[in-house]
């Protein structure tokens, strides 16, 4: 008989069989061994192939743990959702390892990018699902991102120079600790970043005062959704994104105005 998953949600962060069970209740800490060398245990599973799902392009940046970097797909039953799974090690330190759905945003200096994180399945506190602007696809490239973590709230992250260390903003201060949540990254003038979160996609809260990444190069800039797993080999994390969008925006620059000196009058006309 086919196994069932609670709320029809396979927990990719828990490994096979995803905390599913014959009755549909969630069962944690399951392990499956195929031909274990010492105990000679065997496990057999009959899975229905999700042939109706459509794989969509995603790219691994910086390597991964295990045998597969990850993938992304869409489900015709929920066509606005994008599922992204990753075995990437982390987005942190001086180099990153993650799965990415990148969009070519090269040459844009004023940009708004938004996404809704509907669900995030993981078993590690610092697994990450994010919305990121990145100067290039190199693992050590400068970037700015709004990040949903496994168990550390919603934070901002940035690398301010190629190969530099990652800076985290707003750790432990966000009121929006769990998904679902809206994320927004705004780029102004090619190097100033605004990182925001929202509960409804309308009213936004800055995670950090706008900051500048000096010499941020937009000539090869990419942006989009990312996932990293931050757990040991063989486990993945998966996020469900929705309503991803980006657009060019204009910010007014006001020329200085000169206020004329006040004109005074006594009300008396000279008769000279």
Shape: globular
State which percent range the strand residues make up.
35-45%
**Major sheet:** 9 strands, antiparallel
**Considering DSSP H and I runs of 4 or more, what fraction of the residues is helical?**
under 10%
Number of helices: 0
Model regions low in confidence, pLDDT < 50 over at least 5 residues = 35-42, 254-259, 261-272
Topology as a string of helices (H) and strands (E):
EEEEEEEEEEEEEEEEE
Q: Structural class, judged by helices and strands?
A: mainly beta
- Would you tell me the overall average pLDDT? 83
How much is the radius of gyration in Å? 25 Å
Tell me the span between the first and last alpha carbons. 113 Å
Tally of strands: 17
Task: Name a few traits of the molecule.
about 270 residues; mainly beta; nine-stranded antiparallel sheet; eight-stranded antiparallel sheet; about 0% helix; globular; disordered C terminus
Topology overview:
Blueprint lengths: L53 E3 L2 E3 L8 E6 L2 E9 L3 E3 L2 E10 L6 E11 L6 E7 L8 E7 L4 E6 L6 E4 L11 E8 L3 E7 L6 E2 L4 E2 L9 E7 L8 E12 L24
Antiparallel strand pairs: 1-3, 2-6, 3-4, 4-17, 5-6, 6-16, 7-12, 7-17, 8-9, 8-16, 9-10, 10-11, 12-13, 13-14, 13-15
Describe this structure in words.
This protein is an all-beta fold. It is 0% helix and 39% strand.
């Amino acid at each position: 008989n086919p196994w069932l998953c609670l709320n029809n949600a396979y927990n990719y962060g828990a490994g096979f069989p995803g905390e599913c069970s014959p009755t549909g209740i969630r069962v944690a800490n399951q392990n499956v061994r195929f031909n274990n060398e010492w105990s000679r245990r065997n496990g057999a599973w009959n899975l229905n192939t999700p042939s109706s799902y459509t794989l969509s392009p995603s790219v691994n940046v910086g390597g991964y743990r295990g045998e597969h970097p990850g993938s992304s797909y869409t489900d015709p039953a929920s066509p606005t959702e994008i599922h992204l799974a990753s075995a990437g090690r982390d987005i942190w330190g001086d180099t990153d390892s993650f799965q990415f759905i990148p969009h070519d945003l090269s040459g844009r200096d004023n940009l708004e990018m938004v996404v809704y994180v509907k669900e995030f399945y993981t078993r590690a506190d610092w697994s990450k699902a994010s919305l990121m602007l990145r100067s290039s696809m190199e693992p050590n490239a400068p970037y700015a991102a709004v990040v949903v973590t496994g168990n550390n709230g919603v934070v901002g992250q940035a690398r301010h120079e190629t190969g530099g260390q990652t800076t985290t903003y707003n750790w432990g201060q966000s009121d929006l600790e769990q998904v679902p949540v809206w994320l927004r990254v705004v780029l102004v003038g090619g190097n100033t970043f605004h990182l925001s979160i929202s509960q409804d996609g309308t009213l936004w809260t800055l995670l950090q005062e706008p900051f500048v990444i000096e010499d941020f190069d937009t000539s090869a800039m990419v942006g989009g959704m990312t996932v990293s797993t931050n757990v040991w080999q063989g486990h993945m994390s998966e996020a469900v994104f929705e309503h991803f969008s980006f657009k060019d925006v204009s910010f007014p620059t006001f020329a200085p105005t000169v206020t004329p000196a006040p004109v005074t009058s006594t009300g008396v006309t000279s008769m000279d």
